[in-house]
Amino acid sequence: MTENSVATGDLRVAVIGVGVMGTDHVNRLHRRTSGARPVVVSDAFVEKASEVAASVPGVRVIEDPFAAIADPEVDAVVIASPGMKHHEQVLACLEHGKPVLCEKPLTTDAESSLEVVRAEEKLGRQLIQVGFMRRFDPEYAALKSLIDSGDIGRALLVHCAHRNPSVPPYFTSEMMINDSVVHEVDVTRFLLGEEITAVTVLTPTSSSEAPEGLADPMLVLFETESGRLVDVELHVTTTVAYEVRTEVVGERGSAMIGLDTGLVRSGGDARRGRQITPGFRERFGTAYDIEFQRWVDAVRRGTIDGPSAWDGYAATAVCEAGVRALQTGRRAEVSLAERPVTALSGR
Length: 347
Prior knowledge:
single chain; about 350 residues; alpha/beta; Rossmann fold; Dihydrodipicolinate Reductase, domain 2; seven-stranded mixed sheet; six-stranded parallel sheet; 15 strands; about 40% helix
């Protein structure tokens, strides 16, 4: 299919990795996204890939992810494989000139993420969008619009809470930074429109619900280029439900998202006036749907409409600093390369 035919026909998408998120994305493309359809799935677990393919008419299984990316019947790619696979798979998409929506992380370290940024720059056009779905959540979009409007004056402080009911037993303190806090990293850059320059991590007494060795809860402090502060309370073994809140304090007021209406109380019955979302898919399902529709529409126009490769690189670099701060107990500065002229931040 040529670029012109993509504009008039369905975008044919390969989904690489069909675990929880990848399977959701196949269904999303099939049932809730206009102008696109899944045509190929690929996964290291072939039986799982075959099961997913069998649930959607016309979807083929290609075991080798690089063959799936190169397949002539594939116009664009969604990468939902484990993070350590992203580097080579995203570069393969660039090699074949195929737009890609890559779930976070872009790669697992800043050096390889920067390599991806430079490879895209050399290509001369943006093909990479990174899957930070919160930017597409209606509440976050409204908060961003409010900040940009100036109605509450200049934003001075941001308070974030990120709570999970539980995590797998293999979850580590470093994963709390790389897999959870990474979302607040992107939220900070999105809402405030500037880079994070330093990270401090504090680890108070751990919850009795936390697995042995897990520093839960933890407090993370970001410093930004202009001196604004963002604090993140991360608690991943609350036993209650999935809660994400963000409050922006401005010069002339404040605004908070992520609160249900009614009595503000969390307890064992997982209620705060009404049911608290049990997981991230329920909380951000609409955001994922909007993200995919806007990505498909942008690809058909020949561009991206969301977090860019640079955004993915910057988030990885901040998380690396966060892990250093966690391990040393000291403030860690963020080291970012000079931004290439073409490496614009996404919307």
